Inverse folding.
C-alpha cells in the first residue's frame, strides 16, 4: 500500500482506536517485516502531539526458532525487565496499538506442549498488566496489516497476496469511502443501539443452536453489561479496542454453561491452527473436548489454569457484517471473530460487569465473571445459528434467527 | 547476499568473534531492515548450541523521529527496565553481537545539542554495563552489514550499493577465500606479533607527525599493555571484539598529551558527521578544538563529562591494511578506524593496563587510564604519518614512517 494510504490507516487508528491525546506516550507493537508501517505510525503519533512514541518489535521467525531450540527453563523464566517494560505502559498511561498479523503456521514443528508451557509462564508473569488492560486501565487497540505468510494463507492462489489482503483490510476498516471518520461514527452508533437493546432485556440465559450440532445454554453474569466498540478508559477518554469491530459482547456466568458447541471456523492460537473442535460444558466447566486438528494446542489452552476451563465472553455478530459478507476466512481472530458469533475461554472483561473495573477479582467472581491468565476468542456463529434470549421471568425472546439479528 | 554466504558470515562471527559456547545465551543487536540477517544469526547460534538467542531490534528512522519530536525529559529519563535488560547480559554471561550500520546522516535536522544531552543521559544510565563490557566482563563483537542509506553514502553512484558494500565487507572479513578461519588465525597471529614488539619496547611516549599539521606527543599509561584482535574475557574464553580488526592498541596517559592533531577522515557520531576537525592538547586535556563540519556535534561529545576532554585509546594501523588499501571511505568507524591510526576520546579499556580488569577506576586513573561515560574513536593516520616511540631512556625509535610499520 502507498505511504499516503498507510498514513490514513494509522491516523484513523490513532484517533478512533486509541484516541491518542496531546502529550501522551504511545507504543506500537509491530512485526519487524512491517517497519515501513511502524515508521508511519510513529511519525503520525508525533504529528498528533505524542510526547514520546516507540516501537516494540517482534519477529515470529525468530520466535519460532527460539520456541523450537531454546532451553525451556530460560523461556519460562520471564525476565523482570520485560514485565517492567509492560507495566511502564500502565504507570505512564501510554496508549498502545498492537499489530496482529501472525502466520497461522508460524510455530509448526514446535512441540505444542512446550508452546503451552511457555505461553502460560508469560501470561502468568504479565497477569498484572493484562488485568489492567482488560479493565481498560489504559487505552489500546488491536489492528492488522498484511504480512507475507499470513496473506499467503488467506489468498493462496494470489500473485499479490499482500496487496489483496490490504484491500480487504481497507474495506473492513471502512477506509474505502470519502469520509471514514463519519462512517465509523455511524457504525459505532449502530452497535451501541444493539447493545442497548440487549441491556434492556437483561437476559438471564442465551441459548445457541445450529445445524453443526451446537446446543448450548449460557447463563449471563449478574450485573452484566452488553458493550460494543466504544469503551471508556480509566482516564475517562473513549477508545475502540479492536479495529475492525462488529461485535456486542458481555460476560457469561462462569458457573452457568450447559451443552455442547462446535467451532464454526479455525482458530489460530500461538502459531498453530485448531480446527473442527467441540467443547462440552457442565455447570460452566468444560468437561470434554475434541479437535480434528490441533488437539494438543487446544489441550494446552484449556489446561492453562482453572479459568481456561470456563467462559469469559459471549459476543454477537450478525452474518451481514461486512467481514462476514466478504466470505473470506482470515485465519486471524481479529477478523474472524467479527464475522461470527463467538465466545472466549478465560478471563472476562471486568468492564462487562456494572462498575466492574472497580471490583476485586473475588467480587467479580462472585458475580460470575471468570478469571484466568488467558482470554482466547473462538468462533461459533453459522448462517443458520439461532440465539434465544431467556429473561428472568422465563420468557423466550428470539435474538438471532438464521445467523442474524432479529431482536 | 545469498543465505548461504550470510550464514558463513554469521558462523565466522559467532565462532571467532564472540566465540559462542555450548549452552551460552546470545543477543544480537540488529536494525529491523536487516531481519533476514538476524534470523540467520539466531538459527546459527542455536545450531552452535546456544541455550537461548534473542534479537534487540533498532531502527534509526524511528530513533531520528523520536530524537526530533519527543519530549526531551522523557528521553533523558532512561527507564529502569532498559538498564536491567542490558545488565542481564552481564548477569547471565550472554555473548553479544552488535551490527553497526548507521546511515551517516540519520539524525540530520535534529538539534545537535539535544542529541548530545540524550546520548549523555543514556551513556550515564548504562555506565555500569559499558564499564563491564570494556573490561571484557562478557564477550562481544561489533560487525556490520550493509543497510541501504549507509551503502548509498559509501557508493553514491552505484546502482546496487548494498551489493557493492557486501562485497567489500566480505573482503575485509577475509571471507573471499577457501579457508577464512585459517586466514583469520594467521591474521590474528600477525597482529599479536606487532603488539608483542611494542610491549617489548615499553615506550613512554609516542610522537605523531604528518603533513596535515598533526604534531602530537602522547604519553602512555603506566603498566600499559598493547593489545590486538584476540582478547580474553573474564570467563577465560578468547574473543575478537571487532570484525574486521587490523589494530594494535593501548592506553594513553590521561595527563600526558601535548600538541595538536588534525582528523584524517570524517567521523560519524550519533547520526551526524564531524569532518576536518582539530584538537589541541595541553597536559592531556583538550584546550581548543575546531571543525569545518559538525562543530556542535564535536562540542557535544567533548563536553559530555570531564573524561571526554582526554584520550582513552591510541591505536596503530599500517596503510597497507586491506581496508586502507581498498581506498574506500566507509563512513563507519568499524571500518575507517581499521584503515588508519586512531585515537579515542573518553574511557580507556581497563584491559590495556596490566591486570586492569581487577583494578578500581581510581587505581586505573592513578596509572593514567582515563575514565568517562564515552569512548569514541577517530582517525588521524595519513599516508605520510610518522610515529616515533620514545623509551624511558629517551631513545627515539621509528615505529611508523610514511604511514606504515617500520618497527
Amino acid at each position: 500500500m502507498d505511504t499516503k494510504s498507510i498514513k490514513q490507516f494509522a491516523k484513523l487508528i490513532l484517533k478512533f482506536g486509541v484516541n491518542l491525546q496531546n502529550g501522551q506516550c504511545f507504543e506500537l507493537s509491530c512485526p519487524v517485516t512491517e517497519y515501513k508501517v511502524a515508521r508511519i505510525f510513529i511519525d503520525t503519533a508525533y504529528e498528533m502531539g505524542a510526547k514520546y512514541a516507540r516501537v516494540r518489535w517482534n519477529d515470529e521467525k525468530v520466535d519460532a526458532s527460539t520456541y523450537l531450540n531454546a532451553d525451556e527453563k530460560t523461556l519460562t523464566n520471564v525476565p523482570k525487565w520485560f514485565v517492567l517494560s509492560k507495566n511502564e505502559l500502565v504507570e505512564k498511561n501510554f496508549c498502545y496499538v498492537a499489530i496482529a498479523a501472525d502466520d497461522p503456521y508460524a510455530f509448526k514443528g514446535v512441540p505444542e506442549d512446550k508452546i503451552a508451557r511457555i505461553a502460560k509462564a508469560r501470561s502468568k508473569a504479565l497477569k498484572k498488566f493484562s488485568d489492567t488492560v482488560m479493565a481498560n486501565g489504559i487505552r489500546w487497540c488491536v489492528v492488522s496489516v498484511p504480512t507475507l505468510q499470513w496473506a499467503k494463507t488467506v489468498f493462496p492462489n494470489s500473485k499479490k497476496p499482500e496487496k489483496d489482503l490490504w484491500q480487504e483490510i481497507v474495506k473492513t476498516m471502512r477506509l474505502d469511502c470519502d469520509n471514514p471518520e463519519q462512517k465509523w461514527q455511524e457504525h459505532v452508533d449502530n452497535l451501541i443501539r444493539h447493545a442497548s437493546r440487549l441491556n434492556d432485556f437483561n437476559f438471564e440465559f442465551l441459548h445457541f443452536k445450529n445445524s453443526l450440532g451446537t446446543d448450548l445454554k449460557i447463563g449471563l453474569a449478574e450485573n452484566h453489561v452488553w458493550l460494543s466498540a466504544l469503551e471508556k478508559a480509566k482516564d475517562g477518554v473513549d477508545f475502540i479496542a479492536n479495529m475492525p469491530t462488529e461485535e456486542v459482547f458481555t460476560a457469561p456466568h462462569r458457573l452457568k454453561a450447559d451443552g455442547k458447541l462446535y467451532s464454526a471456523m479455525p482458530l489460530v492460537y500461538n502459531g498453530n491452527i485448531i480446527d473442527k473442535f467441540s467443547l462440552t460444558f457442565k455447570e460452566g466447566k468444560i468437561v470434554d473436548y475434541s479437535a480434528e486438528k490441533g488437539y494438543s494446542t487446544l489441550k494446552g489452552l484449556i489446561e492453562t489454569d482453572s479459568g481456561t476451563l470456563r467462559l469469559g465472553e459471549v459476543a454477537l455478530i450478525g452474518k451481514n457484517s461486512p467481514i462476514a459478507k466478504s466470505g473470506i476466512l482470515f485465519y486471524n481472530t481479529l477478523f474472524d471473530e467479527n464475522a461470527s458469533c463467538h465466545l472466549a475461554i478465560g478471563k472476562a472483561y471486568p468492564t462487562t460487569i456494572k462498575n466492574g473495573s472497580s471490583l476485586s477479582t473475588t467480587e467479580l467472581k462472585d458475580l460470575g465473571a471468570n478469571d484466568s491468565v488467558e482470554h482466547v476468542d473462538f468462533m461459533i456463529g453459522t448462517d443458520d445459528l439461532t440465539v434465544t434470549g431467556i429473561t428472568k421471568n422465563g420468557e423466550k425472546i428470539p435474538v438471532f434467527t438464521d445467523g442474524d439479528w432479529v431482536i
